[in-house]
Known about the structure:
- The protein is α/β, with parallel strands linked by helices.
- Helix content is about 35%, strand content about 15%.
- The longest helix has 15 residues, at about 165-180.
- The radius of gyration is 20 Å and the shape is globular.
Amino acid sequence: MKENLYRFNSDFQTESGIVISGLELFYCTSGEYVRGKSRVVWVCHALTASADCESWWPDLIGAGKASGSANEFVICVNIPSSCYGSTGPMSVNPKTGEKYYSEFPMFTVRDIVNGLIELRKRLGIDTIDLLIGGSMGGYQCVEWAIMEPQVAKNLVLVATGARESAWGIAIHTAQRLAIETDPSFGEKRDDAGSKGLKTARAIGMLTYRSYEAFVASQSDQDDRIDDFKVSSYIHYQGEKLVNRFNAYSYWLLTKTMDSHNVGRGRAGVESALKSITARTLCIGISTDFLCPVNEQKFLAANIPGATYMEIDSPFGHDGFLVEGKIIGETILNWERNR
Length: 338
């Protein structure tokens, strides 16, 4: 995918009232956008993903995969607070000349979507043929479909919900507590909080996969009493994230997820969802422990004309990534059966 960078000419104000000068959005594109001719597929990414959506959704995103169209223009934007190109804690604060680190403000999901809308307008994109996202990416998509009801023609929401649940907020709080126990968290250095981040990832892994998936892939076949296979797996996943992500970004982005509530200031969640005009497909993963299928069923029940489909997968919440091929086939069938 082609790498791009958009810098805001004016100050960006967050919902909390904090102003960011020189906000930058890093984004990746595939194909050429020709106004009035291209089929625009806009992908919104999840918590620790990047703008290179073809790298983490290879079975779903690519030439014709999501829509069966050869003239696709695919775009994915790295969200603010992340550490993959857009402005975040590792960026230099133009007011101080030093990196933000812990001084970077929290962005709400609505703040993020306001940034995406600004970029859409600057790129001259009037309509989005397919707006799609899973997990936190789905938070952005459903918020966007409410903020600009006439822009997205088709909306696909995977393993996501209309607002962050008490369960999700509890998990994120535990993860932030883990990061905060690292004595280096708060220091002005890139690797601050890395040990805490490893623990936070371990907590997350318990919610990303299912009981069945852990037992099937991580059970020991001998009579050992220590050094279990699954323990090594959890350590490995923690180290893997530490090597590619940042504790300040993780801490902030879990706060961003907690802020998700499409009903805020809109007379409630049900009322907000009823304003969506896009043709909508809600996809649930049968074993999703983090964002269970009742949340996608709720979306489908309250978005006018929405369709609910469920994918039987042992991979829990991670099914929205692992089952990319099946999700793609589900979308294609839905689009063909208009």
